[in-house]
Amino acid sequence: MQVTQAPRRKVVGSRVKCSRPASGPTPRMRGVETIDAELRLVAALRRAARERGGPLPSIDVADALLDERRELTERVRN
Q: Is residue 59 part of a domain?
């Protein structure tokens, strides 16, 4: 059995960066609970930035997480 790595997300300043391993297999799909937790983190980071009047982190990370969540839930339904 081959182990795959999930994308790594880290906070850099007011942005959340997502990086995948340089080579190797595509990361396996994560659970809805994990994706939801990451969405809550992105929302909290954006809320904190808005409250302090700073620039908002990119919404691209949230978009990618929502896409991943949709793919996962569509697979479960079918």
A: yes
